[in-house]
Amino acid sequence: MKRKLATSLGLAALALGMSATAASARTIIFVGNSFLFASHTAVMHYKPDTVTDLNGTNIGGVPALFKSFTKQVGLDYDVSMETVGGKGFDYHYNEKLSVITAKSYDDIILQGYSTLDEKNPGNPALLIKYTKMLGDAMRAKSPSAKIYLDATWSRADQTYPEGRPWHGKPIEQMGIDVDKAYQAAAKEAGKSVNGIVTVGLAFNRAMKTNIADTNPYDGISANQTNLWTWDNYHASPSGLYLEALMIFGAVTGKDPLVLGNKEPCAEDLEISPTLRVALQQVAHDELMAHGVSIAMK
User: Fold this and answer.
1) CB atoms within 10 A of CB 8
2) Among residues 46, 67, 119, 260, which one has the fewest Cβ atoms lying within 10 Å of its Cβ?
């Protein structure tokens, strides 16, 4: 009888311990499109079992990289994602609001359409309108959440070919324009947005420091990486790695450099030790340049 009682007590204690561990995990949701689910790359199917895909599409993407980074530094995050290709905040607000507000979250990442408005590229009005609407709705469900906007990168396919919206402008300009739009959206949203993850400016920094090539249409220079995948539109594994590093640093307050040259995600994605540290340095410098408090520990 004593043995049965001890066993029961032990199982109860284990269950309580597991419950406490689950309850202690910080929750985060990623809401966006293919720039988060990593279209046309191996990152799309990277460790999907480590995140909860609310659309049931069995994707890992940038959220899975984020999850791995947090585990490596001893943090516990329960990661969810709701991503649909080619969609902006208007879609997520009008079609997916019940999914993304089904429960509350501690941290929220919102990433919109890459050209700001599919029908009117470069026009921030739609982004500004729906950032506030979506942010307010998320804030109502998660009053204490930290909500971040993921300001994305310049697209080579929108810059170099003739007839495209940013043709004739420097490759950095689209990223700058997108960032300005997100700044305006955050200002309009007020307390419903806590900050902006300046991923597009990090891409610009990687190009300015000669870590990344500026023009994939004329070939990739030696000792430089291509931040875009084969369509010159979506990010390559190295571009997605940089995006994940930026989100990791902004959300957790951890310095991306703490991951080091043996970081396993980069190993899985065939990103060299030299390049992974260089991208970590870019993320570090970009976060620091925008006043993000990060700690090397």
Assistant:
1) 10
2) 119
| Secondary structure, 3-state, 31-93 | EECHHHHCCCCHHHHCCHHHCEECCCCCCCHHHHHHHHHHHHCCCCEEEEEEECCCCCHHHHH
Taking the alpha carbons at both ends of the chain, their separation in whole angstroms is 49
Question: To the nearest 10°, the Cα dihedral for 256, 258, 263, 266?
Answer: 20
The answer, as to whether pTM is greater than 0.70, is yes
Q: Which CATH class is domain 25-289?
A: alpha beta
Q: State the Rg of the chain over Cα.
A: 20
Distance CA 173, CA 164 (A): 13
Structure tokens at 160: 């170099």
SS3 29: strand
The residue extents of the domains of the chain are 25-289
**145-187 confidence digits (pLDDT tens):** 999 999 999 999 999 999 999 999 999 999 999 999 999 999 9
- Name the percent of the chain lying above pLDDT 90: 89
- H helix intervals, the chain: 2-24, 34-37, 61-72, 89-95, 97-100, 125-141, 172-189, 199-208, 237-252, 264-268, 273-289
Mean pLDDT of 241-245: 98
Specify the amino acid at residue 262: K
Tens digit of each residue's pLDDT (9 = 90 or more) over 1-13: 444 434 444 444 4
Closest CA to 55 of 25, 89, 32: 32
Residues 6 or more apart whose CB falls under 8 angstroms from that of 24 comprise: 76
- Residue 17 CB neighbour total at 10 angstroms: 10
